[in-house]
Design brief:
The protein has helices spanning about 10-20, 25-40, 90-110, 125-135, 145-155, 235-245, 285-300; strands at about 45, 50, 65-70, 75-80, 120, 160-165, 170-180, 185, 190-195, 200, 215, 225-230, 230-235, 255-260, 265, 275, 305-310, 315-320. By secondary structure, it is of the alpha+beta class. The radius of gyration is 52 Å and the shape is rod-shaped.
Length: about 325
């Protein structure tokens, strides 16, 4: 019978060997299972006592947070869940939606809709005539273009310049500069007001200012040109200035006349008609020439029907109309 080998290990060494043979087995099993789940791309759900099979959830994104869930008396599950991240794109989207809602609320708010525009600077035109051209009543004040509204006001023939100002909550202020007539041209049954630039426009009111010169004519000058409906270039600025110079030599309130043949003239207090021609230049020299002829005629008791000083070299008078 063979002899049994004598055990030379101490009691402490035997205890350590026994522990080394028994405890690593569960740890190795847990490690192998964890590596298997990691290889499959599925997040691992573990408990205090090992890997829970059948409880893993598919990975949907980057894992950033762990949630501990209690399952029973002695079981605790640690579940890996994706963390939500709200970046700058979400903040930009939220800001855009907020601005759209704000703009819509302001656009349709009654407090920002124009009730009646304020019109200033009127002398001849009525406020209703100007307001009817604006098209701003009932519109949101944010959608009004001041430059475009000013152009619509300046389309009125009697308006020289317009300025539009918009203010919160619903104010539209229009400042108008009207054309000032310096003479009134009566052409048959139609009347035109003429400003210092020679622009003729339809009168906004029936009565002209008293200081405006009156010109009575059967027709318009041949050089008159239509600019737009209700407005034409009747005279040049130099011709208007010449007529104003002529008026200073005449008795106050004397009306002027226009003839396509003789040009501008007037009825003299002596009873004859005087014409200065079509050109209307050198008006002061023409008036000096006429006054000399008038003295000569009165000295000889001559009463002509017409005196013409259109030509400096050949002025004449005529006894017949």
């Amino acid at each position: 019978m063979p002899r049994k080998k004598q055990d030379t290990l101490t009691r402490a060494e035997r205890v350590r060997r026994r522990r080394g043979n028994t405890r690593p087995q569960p740890r190795r099993a847990k490690t192998v299972a964890a590596h298997a789940h990691a290889a499959s791309g599925t997040p691992v759900v573990v408990s205090r006592y090992g890997v829970l099979s059948g409880t893993a959830v598919p990975a949907s994104g980057r894992v950033r947070r762990q949630v501990r869930v209690s399952r029973g008396r002695n079981t605790e599950v640690v579940a890996a869940m994706p963390a939500l991240s709200l970046g700058w794109r979400w903040a930009s989207l939220a800001l855009s939606v907020f601005l759209i809602v704000l703009i819509a609320a302001l656009w349709y708010a009654p407090v920002f809709r124009v009730d009646a525009p304020e019109v200033r600077g009127l002398q001849y035109l009525g406020a209703d005539q100007v307001a009817s051209r604006l098209g701003v009543v009932g519109r949101p004040v944010f959608g009004i273009n001041p430059a475009l509204v000013a152009e619509q006001v300046e389309a009125l023939p009697a308006v020289a310049h317009a300025e539009v100002r918009v203010a919160l909550p619903n104010r539209v202020v229009v400042t108008v500069q009207e054309r000032q007539p310096v003479l009134v041209w009566h052409a048959g049954h139609k009347t035109w007001w003429v400003d210092a630039q020679g622009l003729a426009f339809a009168p906004p009111v029936a009565e002209a200012p008293p200081q405006a010169l009156q010109v009575r004519a059967g027709t318009l000058p041949a050089e008159a040109a239509d600019l737009r409906p209700g407005e034409m270039q009747l005279l040049s600025p130099a011709q208007v200035e010449a007529l104003q110079t002529l008026a200073r030599y005449l008795p106050q309130g004397t009306p002027l006349v226009y003839s396509p043949r003789y040009g501008i003239g007037w009825q003299a207090p002596e009873g004859w008609r005087v014409f200065v021609g079509q050109q209307l230049t050198h008006m002061e020299q023409r008036m000096v020439l006429y006054e000399a002829i008038a003295r000569w005629l009165k000295a000889r008791h001559i009463h002509p029907a017409l005196v013409d000083v259109a030509s400096f070299r050949a002025p004449y008078y005529r006894m017949e109309p």
